[in-house]
Amino acid sequence: MKPTLIAQLLQTLAPWRNAPAWHVAFSGGLDSTVLLHLLACLAKTETLPPLGAVHVHHGLQAAADAWPSHCQSVCDSLRVPLRILRVQVRPGGSLEGAARDARYQAFTQVTGAGQVLFTGQHRNDQAETLLFRLLRGAGLRGLAAMPAQRPLAAGYLVRPLLDVSRGELEAYANEHQLNWIEDPSNADSRFSRNYLRHQVFPVLTERWPQAVSGLARTAEHLSEAQGLLDELAQMDLHAADQSAPFPWLHLPSLALAPLRELSDARQRNALRHWLAPLTRLPDSDHWASWHSLRDAKGDAQPVWRLADGELHRSGERLWWLPATWSEFSDASLGWLDPQNPLELPGNGQLKFTGNAPEGPLQVRYRQGGEVIEVPGRGRRDLKRLLNESGLPRFVRGRLPLLYRGEQLLGVPSIAGRWAVPSEGWQLHWMPQTCDQGLS
């Protein structure tokens, strides 16, 4: 016999019972109303984390202005505290997508370390998501539809009703005489999901009554397959995660040789996994740029431009440069107090070890044709010395050079031993970290 809805939910919630707090994303609609009622009932008989509700007010339609008071009334009757968050939805593009982004941004603000945010998506939502993404030509990760759980801020987002049908939720709501909001926009078939819900699924279920549960089950199988591909990607990336030749350069990077040994499909799988936290991933048509980067001659310095940055190749290594990497000023700077580090706008910090040379000192960036005195080697062309060092070209334009008048006194010691002068001081550059490129 199938367990009751409340018993089924209790089993699903078992891994999360030691969380510091539980939050329910409470729109006031059927799904979240049933979920909140279920959790409030459980709290009367079970020892659960503190429970609260969060209502996000988008302000996109006049009817929505009455929803916060309805949600407050429901929460008061259940003795559940409610937070109402008002958000601004950015215009342009998909209204559904912009509203969703604003909503989840609000959710990250309330979800503390280890805390759980519950949302009310159910089996029908999962089936709609799979079909919608299938029609858009999504890859396996997209076809895995909505995960039952995923990280959210410092906590977790959990969907405990994915195995429950909308019909079961309606039956529960009617049995307990619950009141919920009917969003007028849910009837608007101009929205793709509504079109699927009202026009497509009734036809499918008339011919195949188990279409919803079958599609939801397919999403589970695809999610499991994606998990296996993620494990394979981690294995392949482990082989490519070799120490970078410039550890002070805080940029994500991979050795290219181990990736070359893989099939094309495994290369793409590994790179998708590696790039996912860094940028929006390219569609299938743009992977030809990966082949061009991979197969270019060693001295070609190819670049693959992606949505949120660039993938560079320097020799036999791949480097990720976020879009913010190029945001620095190459204007000359006077170094008035060389006893203290010099802040380089958008380019980190420069400092001396040992006794700084006599001034006045100035920091400039490469223009071409620079020559420097190298201890034991005489005057040498800076470009040739940089080539010898193997320093990636995308770094060279940011390399701070120390001048006194028109004399190039020194280059940071990280660029190679040749840059260490003999006067008892060294110049050290700490480039700006690129953590802002990690999402």
From TrEMBL:
Its EC number is 6.3.4.19. Its main location: cytoplasm. One of its GO terms (biological process) is tRNA modification. This is tRNA(Ile)-lysidine synthase. Belongs to the tRNA(Ile)-lysidine synthase family. The N-terminal region contains the highly conserved SGGXDS motif, predicted to be a P-loop motif involved in ATP binding. One of its GO terms (molecular function) is ATP binding. It is found in: Cytoplasm. ATP binds at S27, G28, G29, L30, D31, S32. One of its GO terms (cellular component) is cytoplasm. The gene is tilS. Residues 361-429 form the Lysidine-tRNA(Ile) synthetase C-terminal domain. It is an enzyme of class 6 (ligase). Transmembrane segments: none annotated. The lineage of its organism: Bacteria, Pseudomonadati, Pseudomonadota, Gammaproteobacteria, Pseudomonadales. Keywords: ATP-binding, Cytoplasm, Ligase, Nucleotide-binding, tRNA processing.
